[in-house]
Fold this protein.
Amino acid sequence: MKVQYSFLKDYLSTDLSQVKLTDVFTKVGFECESDGPIIDFDITPNRGDVLSLRGLQREFQAQQSKVFKDKSHYKTLTFKKDKTIINKIDKSGCGNYQLMLVRGLHSVKVLDKKKRNFLSAAGVPLIHPLVDLGNYVMLEMGTPMHVFDSDHLELPLNILFPISKKTPFQAIGGDTKIVEPSSLTIQDQKGIQAIAGIIGGHETSVSKNTKKHRCRGCIF
Amino acid sequence: MQIPQDLIDTAKLKLKSVQSEAEFFQLRSQYLGKKSFVISSFAELKSLDPDSKVAAAKELNILKSKLNHLFEVALEGIQAKTDVSLLDTTLPADPYFVGAEHPIAEISQRVINYFSPLNYQVFSGNEIETDFFNFEALNFPENHPARQMHDTFYLNAGKKSEYLLRTHTSNSQIHAMLREPLPLYMLSPGRVYRCDSDTTHLPMFTQIEGLVVDEDVNFGDLKGIIINFLEYFFNEKMEVRFRPSYFPFTEPSAEVDIKFGDNGWLEVLGCGMVHPNVLKGCNIDTQKYRGFAFGMGIERLAMLYYGVDDIRDFYASNLDFLNQFSS
């Protein structure tokens, strides 16, 4: 995971130099290397919980013997169950899955420059303000987020785990992947539209011209 | 009677390639022995008319005396070569190259020299290994992301194969735990393979794995032995730190850094307490026995020990480089 030092320093509210900050994380088990102003964290496979800004913050504050202060801003939304939108969730693979329809996107405010720079440093391309926002939330909270183009989605969705057989799937960018039966998939009435938490489908991917979106967030 | 004209020339040519006296006498009997052309031709003179007989006998005598002279001169030359009395003992001797151990072999031996007196047995494992011994038995389930840490060379590319080139020497742990009686103190040096190559990584490199399974071992024992080993190896008091890390087959796991002059902390090895799943898989009672394991890259130790910057130098077969280590 790559994070700019200047961004992380503000996020963690610390005055430590880049060298000292990388040393703190290395000492607690997250080896990191500096490439100019960017710190590259080597997160071990058993610590997926640290693959986010909030995860790094938790580790840093624990090392500094400080009480964890959540810096995220929340706004509570009320969700309702609707079988015409999400029909089935295989609970053995997915704890929670929510979908939100966003309409009438004539002008969307782009992310502020600091956050856009953060995404670029992390190696995430800037695509569309809503996609960028989803990617930012994903990297801040460690929760997979995806934005679908609503015009190409045939509801209701099924979140299925496992699937019956190997299935070809055209991922964002146009590459065809073979989805293993052990994968958690998001399927609409036409078939697989995303491999959960990994990559979305080409057909429902969002471009600059997309007018309607569905955002989803989930806990696996 | 027809006498071949090139007899003398071919004899001269053959004499040039003669190396020893034995070869010389064999060649001389071909040209001047009883069955040779010259001698057998004398016997045929009887059947010729008197005039031809005189001319042919004259020619044969000339040929015989030329061959005799040729072989006499050649014999002197050959004997002179082997005559000790003609050796010039003041000539400088040809350079005599003494072989030496490769630096990687020397470093491996240095590590073994520390652990052998502590009753560690040395095991050599298989370089071609099954998926079970390299991953499954070491608590790497199929599709686990930890497998991505090992850039594995699978055999039979393209097809899903059970066989692979081992990515670490930890496979020997499993073989030893399944085969040997407890308590077990083992060391396993050997080559391992990963699909990676740059100034600090090679597709083939050397590791040494250590494993202890006994009733009363704990992380303190592991720390003690690692610190003591590093001080023995580098021959000085070392500042050592243990960093938390992750290996599927040990829990807790740590990586060990040493303070190395102005370069700050440098990672030298990985270690940890053997994961109970690994012990259970080898039919070991985890209520009674515990284990610790450690593994180190020999090339990395050699780079630190000798101050070499590029790992590829060890395998470039450059004698100027390698001769620096011969003692």
User: Anything to note?
Assistant: Chain A has a mean pLDDT of 85. Chain A has two domains: 2-63, 86-219. The two ends of chain A are 20 Å apart (CA to CA). Chain A touches chain B at residues 26-29, 31, 44-47, 180, 182 (CB under 8 Å).
